[in-house]
Design a protein that fits this description.
about 70 residues, mainly alpha
């Protein structure tokens, strides 16, 4: 059971960090980099949504053979 929870955390943390970085880059971009503003905002939103949606995936119930 803890493997699924660990995997969710491994997906969540980098997705939120990268998503936040892309969103910040999209909001505060100036000069020639502003041409990629919409791309940075879209990537940031997709990464943050993927990280949050991974937390809502259902976990399997306990297996009958795993009882101790």
């Amino acid at each position: 059971m803890s493997l699924n929870r660990t995997a969710k955390g491994i997906v969540l943390v980098p997705s939120l960090l990268l998503g936040g970085a892309f969103l910040a880059a999209g909001v505060w971009s100036d000069g020639p980099a502003s041409a990629n503003r919409s791309l940075a905002l879209i990537l940031g939103a997709v990464l943050m949504a993927a990280g949050l949606l991974a937390q809502f995936l259902p976990e399997d119930g306990p297996n009958p053979g795993d009882r101790e």
